[in-house]
Amino acid sequence: MALFDAAYFVDDIEVVMFRHEQGAAHAAEGYARVAGRPAVVSATSGPGATNLVTGLTDAYMDSVPVTAITGQVATWVFGRDGFQETDILGVATPITKWVYQVRRPEEATPAVRIAYEISALGRPGPTLVDLPRDVQLMEYRGEAKIQINVSKFIPPKPREEDVAKAVKILLEADRPVVLAGGGVLWSGATKEVLELAEKLNAPIVSTLPGKAAIPHNHPLYMGPAGMHGRAEADAALANADAVIAVGTRFSDRTWGRFRELQERVRSGEVKLIHIDVDRSEIGKNVKPTVGIVADARDALREVLDLMPAAAARSPKFLAWLYEIRRRYEDAMEKAAAEFRHFAPWKVLKAVRRAAPPSAVTVTGVGGHQMWSEIWWEVYEPGTFITSAGLGTMGFGIPASLGAKLADRSRPVVCIDGDGSFQMTFNNLALVREYGLPFVEIIFDNASLQLVKQWQVYMYGNRQIAVRFARNPDFLKIGEAYGIEGIRPSSYEELERAVSWAVRNDEPLIIDVTIDEDKDIVLPWVKPGDWLTQVILPKGMEDVSLAYEH
Amino acid sequence: MSISIRIPPSMDYVGRVVSIVRRAKVFVRRMEIEARDSTYHIVMDVEGPADEIGWLIAKLDKLPEVLEIGRTQAAPAIAVAVREGR
Ligand SMILES: Cc1ncc(C[n+]2csc(CCOP(=O)(O)OP(=O)(O)O)c2C)c(N)n1
Ligand SMILES: [Mg+2]
């Protein structure tokens, strides 16, 4: 209360009041990803603070800079279970880069400053400052020194001998592959990734967060690999003899499992170069041939500077990958004909046609997100925002609001699920209140599709607790918040609707009916499977992702 | 393996250190905290695969409140003596 009362007297703090603290936290994430700097999210003690937890964890998993300030009961009540007392420090300990409880007023300013700075320094992440009530009410008494070591977040220069080794590996490889993670985006290394791939004539593959870093119209980009990646990307990664992995934490979602990779790297069959700003990531899941602790762009620059024009490589591998792509797209075109209503990937294509390249796309979590991973085309770096590491349903709407707050000149499109929508739609109230229009596209499959898919394939098709027997009328929800809505009946109508909203900077809810029974996201590498064990759609039975060379 | 850490004297930070140790696949044989020169000195003897201990140290070193971290193969008592001599 006292903190907000003080904000009353400060002109240059813009307070945006969300309807739920989780929404505020996701909005701070959306803001940070578009603005490239942290937003501050603030909540009251107890339930307000605990409602932030999902958002902070999400930011932690996806390395997003967010600073939280929480209220706290007075210090003399600590441990006595006072009204709305929660040990938020204890709760936030494993999900933050730094937490601090201010016990003396002179710590308040440095604590907030440090929290803000640290969240964006090196590998970004969330920080939290807890402000007890009595401290908030005390007189300002100058600034105390808070002892902490931030120098460790300043990325070291890459070691010359490691860079030289990496260059040698890449030049000697027959099938080098560049794997781009989310770190490429934070470091601003898109240009360097493209340059390296072009020099090597090597395919680029990304993780799900790394998808946002690579323009998809680049001919060498194969798409994201992994559980719901593109088949050609899975094939590239699984058959590479050298991988340069940049700014990625080797998630099981990208690799399926690590055994094959680890064995091949150990035997020397595959050479793995891992560049990451976070030392603890090197060798965490897979021990690389060469590990480089450095900022992604710095390291790639040095690799490029040391690399002569690469020797010509046989185009066979790339041609094979393109052929897999063609086969997949053909198979999906045929599959679309079987949908009575909308086919998810065709929806994405129609929306993409209507949204300008600079439009920011945000997703919910579920099948619709996986379809977006596979089919959404990113043209400008940083324009695809998704909850990758935590996979937080309900991320879409508040993150869209945050993205719009960060840059009102850009259209924002949210690809959402009907389940995800229902988790955080209360924040739609801000659309009219703060003038934050965005296009909310609901993939209305009356189900928790992605969970259902697991039940179909992994639990003998025993479907339980995945179907919405009764969904609310999403358009009426929109109406209640003063947002127009439409339930299109054709791809053309859908495309026109998105165009209209984007052109006029108007909010719009689009309820897209998806055939629930046909909505199975493929390709799919089941959890714990290796990339080549991918399940491909009908019509690709003769396609193997194992390269014959 | 003995890991020695120096942090500002706050149990909040001790909790952060412990929360990382909890998730390492190591067995903690001993853990001591002593307040000295206005910082907490933590010494812990851990047993486990070298990779896992490496992971633990790298994770601990990510905490901004970890002012110093070191490891030593030496017996814990010697480790303490060496550190104190520093
Ligand atoms: C907060 C939260 N609860 C549960 C889950 C587990 N989960 C993952 S996807 C999914 C279904 C999502 O449903 P919907 O938003 O309708 O998307 P769809 O899969 O139908 O496209 C669920 C329940 C989750 N990721 N997040
Ligand atoms: Mg759904």
Give the key terms.
heterodimer; A: 549 residues; alpha/beta; Rossmann fold; 3 domains; six-stranded parallel β-sheet; B: 86 residues; alpha+beta; Alpha-Beta Plaits; four-stranded antiparallel β-sheet; globular; binds thiamine diphosphate; binds magnesium ion
Explain what you see.
The complex is a heterodimer of chains A (549) and B (86). Chain A is 40% helix and 14% strand. The mean pLDDT of chain A is 96. By secondary structure, chain A is α/β, with parallel strands linked by helices. Chain A is globular and about 75 Å long. With 86 residues, chain B is α+β, with helices and mostly antiparallel strands. Chain B has one domain: Alpha-Beta Plaits (2-Layer Sandwich). Chain B is built from three helices and four strands, in the order βαββαβα. Chain B has a four-stranded antiparallel β-sheet with strand order 2-3-1-4, sandwiched between helices. The radius of gyration of chain B is 12 Å and the shape is globular. The model of chain B has no long low-confidence stretch (mean pLDDT 91). Classes of the chains: A alpha/beta (549), B alpha+beta (86). Chains A and B meet through strand 3 of A and helix 1 and helix 2 of B. Bound molecules: thiamine diphosphate and magnesium ion.
Helix and strand arrangement:
The complex is a heterodimer of chains A (549) and B (86).
Chain A: H1 2-7, H2 21-35, E1 39-43, H3 47-51, H4 53-61, E2 66-72, H5 88-92, E3 98-101, H6 105-120, E4 126-132, H7 133-137, H8 160-172, E5 176-180, H9 182-187, H10 190-200, E6 204-206, E7 221-224, H11 231-239, E8 242-246, H12 252-255, H13 259-267, E9 271-276, E10 290-293, H14 296-306, H15 316-336, H16 344-354, E11 360-363, H17 367-375, E12 384-385, H18 396-406, E13 412-417, H19 418-424, H20 429-433, E14 439-444, H21 449-458, H22 474-480, E15 484-486, H23 491-504, E16 508-513
Chain B: E1 2-7, H1 11-22, E2 27-36, E3 39-47, H2 50-60, E4 68-72, H3 76-85
Antiparallel strand pairs in B: 1-3, 1-4, 2-3
The structure holds thiamine diphosphate and magnesium ion.
